Amino acid sequence: MTKIVIEPVTRIEGHLRIEVITENNEIKEARSSGTLFRGLEIILQGRDPGDAPIYTQRICGLCTTSHSMASALTLDSAFGIADEIPDNGRILRNLILGAAHIADHILHFYHLATLDYVDMTRIANYDGSDSTLNSIKRLAEADELRLFTAGHEGDYRLSDKANMELVAHYIRALEMRRKAQEMLSIFGGKMPHNMAIVPGGVTTTPSTDKMLSFLWRLNELRDFINNVYIPDILTIAEAYSDYFEIGAGCGNLLSYGNFELDDERRFLNSGTVSTKLKPSPLDIDKIWEQVKYSWYASSTTGRHPRQAETKPEPNKKGAYSWIKAPRYDGKAYEAGPLARIMVNYANGNQVVKNLVDSALAQLKLSPKAMFSVLGRHIARALYTKLIADAMPVWLLQLRPEEPAYIKSTVPEQATGMGLIEAARGALGHWIEIKDHKIANYQCITPSTWNLSPKDDRGQPGPMEQALIGTKMKDENTPLEIGRIIRSFDPCLACAVHLVTPKGGNIDTLHIT
Questions:
Q1: Which of 424, 483, 486, 497 is catalytic?
Q2: Which residues of 329-348 are buried (b: 16+ CB within 10 A; e: fewer)?
Q3: Which of 31, 67, 101, 380 is catalytic?
């Protein structure tokens, strides 16, 4: 038996340690360890509830908009104004969140995951007229690409032409991501940490100029998504078809749904689904967090997030992660673009079905193949197209110069909940207010679902299950592990975080 430890895992957000035990090149055990403590729930206690959207955005530098949305919905619920948000406020929230998701998915595919499949060292052999590729070649000749080429040896299958195109698209995607963030900033004020999403709606008043500026960028992004992003992921899928049989994981998917419409529905429905593709409605009361293998007090295990507590216990025997283990109906569930796409596919959403079936037909695969490494990447790309195509309709529903916000007051005592889909999946915020202050605040992020350790019954988390059973070609170059991990688009900053007022050490944890 062989132990492989990867710490830290690169090209993800945050600090992740992965430990696997292999036998005959097959992973028999896997441990996902978040190695920093997230203390924002504790920091929020005793503060004005209106501060929550500002503080929770600091959980992560990528998922800021998603946290502000979940927090605002939580306060709308607690303040009793959820049904009073002006249409402009609802629509602007959707547009701001949609822009954040487009930027995030472009970032993930091109700048975090693509290097798992593209051989950057081949750029030195390029002999053509593409100015972008020639600029990259000059950087390679000046030894300025060590960040991308160090340690990259092994299983690279793309043709020289496809490989070079993806390298060029890597650079172009930087510009596209910037445009998506500019689009967000038009209505959100800035990125990261937008200032516009608040309880009661959005502080921005839409104008014709802002709408046109937003639409101009959106149309350029839609062209990139349709003609570059989706073709690129299909090119990789054709070259690495065996990755439709790797990294299936727990086989259970959960989505909260996303983007509120004017008839109290959401653009994408909530629900759960398994590999049998039989959908079930979501029951929030079936969500429980467990901490047997997490560095939190054992007395807090087995609670719904409404009653959950954050009590760190860094020296807890047998624990190996700062991430809790949320479970739905006692089972591990995966969150993310795959979940929201397949939940709506199984529910018969015709637009989603057409997108998925078209991609699967080109690859000659069945829907079950989506439960895999490359299935997650394809779902992410199709979801990006889905929302980008919907956003022009929402934009034209805005009423220029009309309000997007209503005032509200903090109740003396209340509870609230806000559920949305962050870029990486199901994100839930829960609040309890006493004496007009935050008495308790809890977050369950997508990466808490996906990267969780074993639960109280010893069931591995979704990503741990995705790693177990994987056969590696070469234990000395475990590319399969990195590809499986990055297909989940981990965000450890959301799952774990550490803040102290004076920046001092709270504790020192030694992992051996």
A1: 424
A2: eebbbbbbbbbbbbbbbbbe
A3: 67
Our answer to whether residue 447 is catalytic in this structure is yes
Query: What percent of the chain stands above pLDDT 70?
Result: 93
Give the rounded distance of the alpha carbon of 335 from its chain centre.
8
Q: Is 464 a known active-site residue?
A: no
Helix (H) or strand (E) holding 414: strand 413-422
Per-residue pLDDT, 500: 39
Say which of 33, 68, 185, 447 is annotated catalytic. Answer: 447
Is residue 443 among the annotated active site residues? no
Structure confidence at residue 153 (pLDDT)? 66
Catalytic residue chosen out of the listed positions 15, 33, 60, 260: 60
Mean pLDDT computed over 258-275? 95
Spatial CB neighbours of 137, under 8 Å, sequence gap ≥ 6: 123, 124, 126
Short-list 248, 256, 260, CA closest to 284: 256
Task: For 421-435, give the secondary structure using H, E and C.
Answer: EECCEEEEEEEEEEC
Please give the Cα distance from 27 to 249 (Å, whole number). Answer: 13
Q: Assess whether 60 carries a catalytic annotation.
A: yes
Rg (CA), the chain: 22
Instruction: Give residue 326's pLDDT.
Output: 98
**Where would I find the H helices in 401-467?**
446-450, 462-467
Which positions ≥6 away from 34 have C-beta within 8 Å?
14, 15, 16, 321, 322, 323, 451, 492, 495, 496
Residue 250 bears catalytic tag: no
Distances (CA, A) of 183 to 168, 178, 195, 471: 23, 9, 14, 43
* CA distance linking residue 445 with residue 13, whole number of Å: 13
Residue 501 pLDDT greater than 70, yes or no: no
Q: How much is the mean pLDDT over the chain?
A: 92
d(CA 398, CA 400): 6
Burial class (CB in 10 A: 0-12, 13-18, 19+), 504: exposed
Sorted by where each begins, the domain ranges of the chain are 2-118+156-495
Identify whether 63 is a catalytic site residue: yes
Residue 147 has pLDDT above 60, yes or no: no
Helix (H) and strand (E) counts in the chain: 16, 14
**Looking at 32, 41, 63, 487, which residue is catalytic?**
63
Decide if pLDDT at 288 tops 70. yes
Query: CA 132, CA 75: separation in Å to the nearest integer?
Result: 47
Amino acid at 261: L
Q: Which CATH class is domain 2-118+156-495?
A: mainly alpha
